[in-house]
Amino acid sequence: MADENMIALEQAQAIVLDHVEPTEPIRLPCWRAVGFPLAADVATDIDLSPFANSAMDGYAVRAADLAGASPEAPVVLDVIGHEAAGHVFEGTIGAGQTVRIMTGAPMADGADAVVKYEVVEVLDGDGNEGSRVRFTAPIAEGENVRAAGLEAHAQEVVMRAGETVTAAGAGLLASAGAAEVEIHRRPVLGIISIGSELVAPDRVPARGQIRDANSSALMASALQAGADARFYGIATDDEDEISAKIHQAMAECDFVITSGGASAGDYDYVTALVRREGEVLFDRISLRPGKAITFGLIGGVPYLGLSGNPAAAAVGFEMLARPAIRKMLGFRDLVRPVQSARVTHDVKKGQQRRFYDRARVERDDATGELLVSEASSQNSALLGTLHHANCLLMVPEGLKGYQAGDEVCCVRIDIEEGAVL
Ligand SMILES: Nc1nc2c(c(=O)[nH]1)N[C@H]1C(S)=C(S)[C@@H](COP(=O)(O)OP(=O)(O)OC[C@H]3O[C@@H](n4cnc5c(N)ncnc54)[C@H](O)[C@@H]3O)O[C@H]1N2
Ligand code: MOO
Fold it and tell me: Would you put residue 384 in left (φ > 0), alpha (ψ -120 to 50) or beta?
């Protein structure tokens, strides 16, 4: 495990992404697609809206009739019909006539504007057919009228493949007749924890044992990234047991992840196992935490062997598995937003490899400036520091650290890829 075998993170990311493809499309109700990119363009089958309609409750008029209206010279029109939910006026408005109309009702033929109730005086009757109503101001043609096809015209694409469906977008798809849409199937991610010291979270560890934290953290990360996460259990440090679990997962999953057994210890078998049973594409990355990461193929299925140290496993997932899941889901944006901030304390880096330190960016209330503070410990065994972090502070390979006040790059792990900061 000589450090000279370490490859750059970007190289590792490119290798992983080269070995995953978007999953096949599935159909589901448009509202269930929220948060996922469409797998195919959606065109509307009809004009949206299909007809010109009123934007107000009021009276549909011919603007020309009201041209000279004023408080001194009001115009009185005859109400010849109404337009309400479930009742469409089929006639045509002639000179001196109007139709009582509700918001969203089709514009009556002959009318070209709508005057809202509040500025209309009903002279007699109930305001419906047979009444007379008075107007004291002119109105512009088209006022309070929503044109047919305002949102889109028939056959027009309203949402493109790769666009993420929003809640508003689900409504737009429904209007366009796309009650069901195609998105890429959630990739199935198999998770395995490796280590004879591990016990399930619902057990009290005996001496020398610890609870398996990684599978919960990785399953949660997989879920957050949009994958269907499946846990294949804890494998003890036994080569045959690890191999059996990996093969079981390989047969059922699009991507398999283990944590533990990736380093140089007496029981760290993962890389050798992949080399023997498949193909290793890299096994060391210039990354801290998360140097000891193996990626390869077994039976053509991508396999990522993360470090056992919990923070290293989590950062390895964030940097390598999350972009892969997003690519499989058809997302175009695979990279988290990066923000520049001023570091509050000195940052030390004792090794050559690139560091991603757990940190928090906050805005200084007094100055409005973005400040970033590192967690007090960067120990890879600690998960609480990552839980409280909202970013990973990047210290590149060439640097030995930063001084308080330096501008640094922060990868916002709390914000979705593609967001503009
Ligand atoms: N001689 C060397 N030793 C180590 C090196 C090295 O370069 N030379 N690198 C260290 C670094 S950095 C890391 S990271 C770890 C990677 O180790 P492994 O991937 O082999 O992981 P394990 O040895 O199995 O476990 C490490 C650590 O994490 C705990 N662990 C493992 N699985 C879980 C789990 N599911 N939930 C919670 N905690 C887990 C395990 O008990 C160990 O404490 O290697 C270093 N050593
Ligand atoms: O890969 Mo190890 O966690 O750097 O910490």
Answer: alpha
Task: Walk me through the domains of the chain, giving residue ranges and CATH numbers.
Answer: 3-23+185-329 (3.40.980.10), 26-49+150-184 (3.90.105.10), 53-146 (2.170.190.11), 338-412 (2.40.340.10)
* pLDDT for the residue 306: 97
> Quick one: DSSP state of residue 72?
S
Q: How far apart are CA 356 and CA 361, in angstroms?
A: 14
> Does ligand 1 lie within 6 Å of residue 260's CB atom?
yes
Residue 3, pLDDT score? 59
Terminal C-alpha separation, the chain: 39
User: Any bridge partners for residue 151, and if so which?
Assistant: none
Task: Give the pLDDT score at 2.
Answer: 45
CA torsion 401→402→407→412, rounded to 10°? 50
∠ CA 168-149-39, nearest 5°, is: 45
Tell the residue nearest (CA) to atom 1 of ligand 2: 290
Q: Cα(393) to centroid of ligand 1, in Å? A: 22
Q: Which residue has 């839980």 as its token pair?
A: 387
> What does pTM read for this prediction?
0.93
Distance 90 CA to ligand 1 centre (A): 77
Ligand 1 nearest-atom number relative to CA 194: 32
Degrees, nearest 5: CA angle 418-419-421: 135
Residue 219 Cβ inside 6 Å of ligand 1? The answer reads no
Q: What is the ipTM of this complex?
A: 0.96
Rounded mean pLDDT for each run of 10 residues along the chain, 421 residues in total: 76 98 98 98 97 96 97 97 86 96 94 97 94 98 96 98 98 98 98 97 98 98 98 95 96 98 77 94 95 95 97 98 98 97 96 96 97 97 98 96 98 97 91
